[in-house]
Amino acid sequence: MNGVQQKYRPRTMRSLAIVKTGRESSSACSPVLTIERLQMAQDQFHVPVLEAEIVDLFTRQAAGVVIDATLGGGGHAYALLSAAPQLRILGIDRDPDARAAAGERLATFEGRVRIVDATFGQLSDALERNADFVGGDPIVGVLMDLGVSSHQLDDASRGFSFRADAPLDMRMDPTRGETAAQYLSHVDQHQFVRLLRENGESRFAGSIAKSVLERQPQTTNELTEAVERAVPMAARRRGHVATRVFQALRVAVNNEVEELSAGLDAALDVLSAGGLVAVISYHSGEDRVVKSVLHEASTGGCHCPPELGCVCGAVPRVTVLKASARLASQSEIDQNPRARSARLRAARKL
Description:
- Mean pLDDT is about 85; it is low at about 1-45.
- The protein has a seven-stranded mixed beta sheet, sandwiched between helices.
- The protein has about 350 residues and is α/β, with parallel strands linked by helices.
- It folds into two domains: about 45-150 and about 255-350, Rossmann fold; about 175-255, Orthogonal Bundle (DNA polymerase, domain 1).
- The chain has helices at about 30-45, 50-60, 75-85, 95-105, 125-130, 130-135, 150-155, 180-185, 190-200, 205-215, 220-230, 245-255, 255-270, 285-300, 330-335, and strands spanning about 65-70, 85-95, 115, 140-145, 275-280, 320, 345-350.
- It is built from 15 helices and seven strands.
């Protein structure tokens, strides 16, 4: 394929030969099983959150290129390419499994989509490296769907979830960078406490950090046990006791805060006049960064007292489309529980 750069390929044919028992079988390489496994992989990726809202925003845009900076399995990209024939998509993702699944999902749009190995913090570089695809068309939109995908959570070997025991990895790109276990081997306790508090684990951040760093967990079960030792049963809130600890480690391992800030700045730079930036976040830390960056851009960085009006000459870069974040409907939450925490913010470049 020319337009779609990535074709779905398992990491090895051996990986498709694992049947439900977890053992290898000579019969597991049959075409039927291969197709079933491929469909399962795609289904895990393709549950785009707030799809109707994203389609409504971007299909009104003039002809040009939309950068899907967190492509995942291609769910949002598929919806946009289907609904808006005037749009082409440059899809960015650091996860090789996601790029492979998206390549298969978007194969019917050959020529209108290109898939790139990059993080959204590398958006400007990815755009420059793919100037031949963009051509002279304007960048009319940038979409970011943050956080971890359903596939990454459901794949126990990735170490993102406490639901199954696995090596403590948590890398979005499992081929680069340090794992969560390696991060814990050198992080300072005060730094770890601060990270936990920034991700909502305030009351027991100190005792959790001490317990985790003393035990140096190498697996998800060991991390969960270290957290459970630090939090009294009576004080445990609704939900799993280790949820915010896993989130905090994932954020740190993948440099998510730094990536988000860099990606938003790059998005505002590359957008053409009238272009849209839309960001779906899933926890308060992400949403605060998005809200802050868009507010700063909407005021041009002006910090003059409101009662005096602007006297600093700041020039706004965007108009925020709605002051509050858009939330998923109850019907969508019923169908896809992950949508419960989703927050969508959007702005248009002036």
